[in-house]
Design goal:
heterodimer, A: alpha+beta, 5 helices, B: alpha+beta, Ribosomal protein S3 C-terminal domain, 5 strands, rod-shaped
């Protein structure tokens, strides 16, 4: 009988082993994949944020302004102090982006970036800071992010005309969860935009050249 | 089978103890599994409701994507629909600085909801503010079952 008793223990131990394997499987197989849920949430979050940029005005983020001086500094004279600053309080974030595209298109000839002295050049830099502040307030801490706004490249053969702005906080980013984008239309027609570029280049563009007036704004969210 | 006081009894006690421990572990695992499922289900439901509020229930009359208008009446009606399904709803709207601008629905009772804690999801939205302009806010939805 003593041997039988130990036999029972062996049976129970084998049974327990089977139960353990079953438990391991049960714990390992999650009812829902957490990554799928995170991606779904991130995607909805990014889409909501990009869409709300089309309605949210600059004043609620402390306002947006920049210096009209081409070199970015103002003369510190009592009478003209502050007169070269341009304040845009009631424009939406999307409108600010469109305006930056129109005022700060980049022209590359070969490998050289033709940067002229533009009175609105500071807008590009200030807008980057402004967008970074908004993104930090809305996303900061929850996700790593990369926001891009760009136009379709206009290839003229000898020169390339484009616009691109990128703001990111990827110091703690691990895996990409989503990438959402919205298309914004520039407040200029194709013809006006063509004239605008012709003026900037100082030459007439080919009549068959089609220019897209769309800005693509994309937002990637990354897990931290 | 004849049990002898001594090794056989000891063997039986040991066998029953080991079996009990493993059965308890099985129940614990199942509890962990179902709790996890319930957390995900709750989050999924909260996110579905937040998206529905943003995209249809509180959408503006012009139906501008991303822009909502606050309406107690529409929220009240939607809460009634959810309560028929045994779901309680609490909606908070906060500015991006964290200031509470609007809330709707009862707050969950921590004691009552001990076994069924509320699940929440929050999404950025722009609320209609003044003449056609929007204010960026965070829409937080809390849901729980009685």
């Amino acid at each position: 009988m003593e041997e039988k008793g130990f036999g029972y223990i062996a049976d129970v131990l084998v049974f327990s082993l089977l139960v353990s394997v079953a438990i391991t499987f049960l714990v390992a197989i999650s009812p829902v994949d957490p990554r799928v849920e995170s991606e779904r949430y991130a995607s909805s979050f990014a889409r909501g944020l990009l869409l709300s940029f089309q309605h949210s005005t600059a004043d609620q983020f402390g306002g947006f302004d920049y210096s009209l001086e081409p070199l970015g500094f103002e003369l510190n004279l009592p009478l003209i102090e502050g007169s070269a600053r341009r304040e845009l309080l009631h424009k939406t974030v999307a409108q600010l982006l469109s305006e930056d595209v129109l005022l700060n298109m980049r022209i590359n000839v070969g490998e050289t970036d033709l940067t002229f002295l533009k009175t609105n050049e500071a807008m590009d830099h200030e807008l980057k800071n402004f967008l970074k502040t908004i993104l930090e307030k809305t996303i900061g801490g929850r996700f790593g992010y990369r926001m891009r706004a760009n136009t379709k490249l206009i290839d003229l053969g000898f020169a390339r005309v484009y616009f691109e702005i990128e703001i990111e906080e990827m110091s703690r980013a691990r895996n990409q969860l989503c990438s959402e984008s919205v298309m914004l239309s520039l407040p200029e027609s194709n013809i006006d935009l063509k004239k605008f570029i012709e003026n900037a280049l100082g030459m007439t563009l080919p009549s068959k050249l089609e220019i897209d007036t769309i800005i693509e704004v994309s937002l990637e969210l990354w897990s931290t | 089978m004849v049990l002898h006081v001594g090794e056989d009894l000891f063997s039986t006690i040991l066998a029953v103890s080991v079996l009990s421990v493993f059965i308890a572990a099985l129940f614990h695992s199942y509890h962990f599994y179902s709790e996890r499922q319930s957390v995900f289900d709750g989050f999924d439901l909260a996110l579905d409701i937040a998206e529905r509020l943003r995209d249809s229930v509180l959408a503006t009359h012009e139906n501008k994507p991303g822009l909502i208008e606050l309406s107690q009446e529409r929220l009240e009606n939607y809460s009634k629909i959810l309560s028929i399904q045994g779901i309680n709803l609490r909606v908070d709207l906060r500015s991006i600085d964290g200031e509470l601008l609007f809330s709707h629905g009862p707050e969950p009772n921590p004691l009552k909801q001990y076994f069924s804690p509320p699940a929440g999801a929050s999404l950025p939205v722009a609320i209609l503010f003044g003449q056609g302009s929007g204010r960026l806010c965070e829409l937080t939805v809390l849901v729980w079952r009685d």
